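Recall the central idea of this unit: under ordinary conditions, the amino acid sequence of a chain determines the structure it adopts. In this exercise we apply that idea directly, starting from the sequence alone.
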Amino acid sequence: MAFAEGLPQFRERRSGVIINVTSAVTVKPLHLLSVYTASKAAVNAFTESLALELEPFDVRAHLVLPGRAPETSFGESARSRILIPEPYAPLAQSVFVAWQQSTTVTRGLDVAEAVWRVANDPSCPMSLAAGADAVALTSPA
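Accordingly, the structure predicted from this sequence is:
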């Protein structure tokens, strides 16, 4: 169901859950991800405001914040499209090496479980990290 079409029905039924999946990078700045982070942060702000607007209708809006998921093709696809200006080449190289060496990641199952939880658990927090690396990024230091 399209978002705009579903919202009136949710309000009328006084039930429903909207789940937006963005990224854990929105809670901690990371190198080379400024535009990506900004686009995801915009969805976060929209969802947080929408949650307030829908609360009187008993409709919930949540965010799922996955971390880096190397088992998906997203990372490789994104890397092949990133144009790194020459002054940033050494930084990019070190960042990419660190990403490849990291064993703390998000699996597809982590995201599916987080989506299921926010859809089915009314006590779930508004934002939920999905994956070990996302949990580490979103946890207080």
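The domain at 3-72+104-138 is CATH 3.40.50.720 (Rossmann fold).
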